[in-house]
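Table S2 (continued). Query chain:
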Amino acid sequence: MEDYEDDIIEDVVEPDEEPAATIFENGKGFVVKEEADRISQQGFYGKRLGDGRLELEPVELLHLIERKRLAVATAKGKQVQAQDIVNQLQDSEPNLWVSYLVFRDLRSRGYAVRQGFGSGIGFRVYARGDRPGAASANQLIYVLREGEAISLSDLDMVTEAASTSRKKLVFALVDQNGEVNYYRVSQATLRKIGDE
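Corresponding output:
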């Protein structure tokens, strides 16, 4: 990450306000239309749907629950906690908690973060001050758990994806204590010996 070591931003004390009503269904959170603007504008969360609701990815949902910005329930009104979400999505998203730790760490450092796209890219990260939608992400984050290997073909695929999109590739390695370390990755071309 660029200059991340000295740039840790302390959590901002947020004004006391009622958590936004959110429905959890099909693995995502849906903030009601009346609260969508408030939540979206508090940090570039979610994707606006045609009906005015705000759709949140699981990591965004977990982050906003932790920050006490959402009151989450099922469509039938049963309260949903962060642990319920992790448990429910365990089979379809086994690395959800690890991804959440990276998402939370990036957000605490002041970055706007969006979900990644194919090729194993977990997140797109925007330069400080840039707004998703108004600017392009400048970094792609590949999330790894300590002790987890990445194949050479996957490594080649993600470095190619970053190179093609002209973005910096960063590996976020989460250790067994939940600490996140970042490593910048770049692509190199090796020449055959004798080629000159």
